[in-house]
Design a protein that fits this description.
Layout (H helix, E strand, L loop, with lengths): L2 H18 L8 E6 L8 E7 L3 E6 L11 H11 L7 E5 L4 E5 L6 H5 L5 H19 L18 H19 L7 H18 L4 E3 L8 E4 L2 E4 L6 E3 L2 H8 L8 H19 L5 H30 L6 H15 L5 H12 L2
Antiparallel strand pairs: 1-2, 2-3, 3-5, 4-5, 6-9, 7-8
Length: about 350
Amino acid sequence: MKPEQSERILVEELFKKTINKNLLKDDIVENVEKLTGDASTRKYYRIWTTRFSYVVCLDTPILDLNEEPSFLKLQRVLHSENVRVPLIFDKDLGTGYLLEEDLGDLTFLKEISQITSLKEEFDFYRKAIDLMVKIHSVDIDKYKNESFTKIAFDTEKLFSEMEFTKKYFLKMYLNLDVTTPAIEALYKKLYDICYMLSNEPRVLVHRDYHSRNLMIKEGEQVVIDFQDARMGTPLYDLVSLLEDCYYKIEEVNKQELIKFYYNEYFKKFDSSKDFEQFKYIYDMMAIQRVFKAIGSFSYIYADRKDLRYVKYIGFAFEKVRSLMLAHEEFTKERKILSSLYYAN
């Protein structure tokens, strides 16, 4: 029996156990369809019954059944805080089984690709920002004992993402010697950025808030893939959305959305910074976040030979180069990075 066939049988058997628990109405399974996975190792299946459809996630089994996965913890917290996240109907941690609400196949990315005007694009992103702020507004004092409030985008974590890019982009993808003085100088500057960002006021951030991690169901935006949420500057999520490497938002809209976020939300969060100071932090966050994304795309290619993500590397690199070009203090580092990239 092929692995995929055995997985389908497993999914159907687990679903039948859910029905036997009386968690769902007694339905007859009509079809089990494997869904295209994301950049993770999780596997997804859609189950069609006579009346409804559901999504099954098969993740790594949990040996200690008392150790609840972060996805379930955060789903419960975010749902209670009125953040629209997928509903969870059942779970079996020992098999890595989660039965979730079927959100369909329409992502933010697919929906935004069909816009008919600049205004429509702006309004769509503004809704995504409003939803993002609900995550940032979670009262952390209520969850002091939860693991996600005890981890943060501190200097070590932010810089580890830069080291990740060094390994998978500079060393493995570009085949460079990463011990040269030039790369050491580049990474000294990147460390300084990480140190500065780590000292910004923190909120609960999604960590991967972009166009492929928002689903559209009946016109409503729904947040997914929030299991890696932790404490950090809210600009981490804002940059993830507006500097998304999967979709190039129109520049006029991006600038207006940055101003919208600053005026509507950031000034209340940190009144000590004027717009220019805020925008500088945004740019530094964008350099760090997009450079990390380059590492992620390179890793997926190196680890899984998945060519779908290679096309985003060049686009992301040009974002980093342009951001550095806008700040004279990065002239040396921009030239180093450009010479390394364009020589390959």
